[in-house]
Amino acid sequence: MPRKARILVANMPHHVVQRGHNREAVFLADEDYQYYRDNLFEWKDKLGIKLYAWCLMTNHVHLLVEPGDRAESVSLLMKRVAGRQAAYVNKLEGRRGSLWEGRFKASVVQAESYFLACCRYIELNPVRAGMVRGPRQYKWSSYRERVGADVSGVLDSHTELQRLGRSGAERVAAYKEFVKAGVSSDELAFLSEAWSRNQLTGNSRFVDEIERRVGLRVEHRRPGRPRIEID
């Protein structure tokens, strides 16, 4: 069966996921996480990409990014960051070969309906994996900056985040409550299947809109409840 084409669209958020080869660990020490994070921040600026959320897990990464007018800059971002990480790890460990599992996955996100849900999904990954009790305890994600516990200042703003409150304090409080509510099983299944299958994270009207924009037929999800995949 031919693999499903990955769709990238200019000026729209994308939920991007890349796994380690054979699902093996990519990050073994703090220095590994830091190296990837530094390169991510550097290249998102160089390529004019907005970064809304990120989480580095032991053997995979989740990003919520938005390219400018050049949709292909998402691919270039992943090529540059993943390539540098592979060279870094191979040199450190005196090894050769692939660090990553083939092509990255990507799902274009319907911002007005799923932007905040994607942020929450990404930042709660370490909690679902049992690594920490709360997202603030995990230092390799965007949650700490989102709630003011980290002042790195690399996250970009978005209209959906601005709508959470009139002031920064109001927005932080509202987002904390939103994350505290957690991800329902249906939402988890929907978001997981979207990125894992390179599908769109949105409703049928959104799918129709993207089909018109890219000039391609995008397969609609089959009816019924999708299979739950926790990542």
UniProtKB/TrEMBL annotation:
Name by which UniProt lists this protein: Transposase
Coiled-coil parts of chain: none
Residues of the Transposase IS200-like domain: 9-125
InterPro entries: Transposase_17, Transposase_17_sf
Classification via SMART domains: Y1_Tnp
Family annotation (Pfam families): Y1_Tnp (PF01797)
Gene3D superfamilies in the cross-refs: Transposase IS200-like
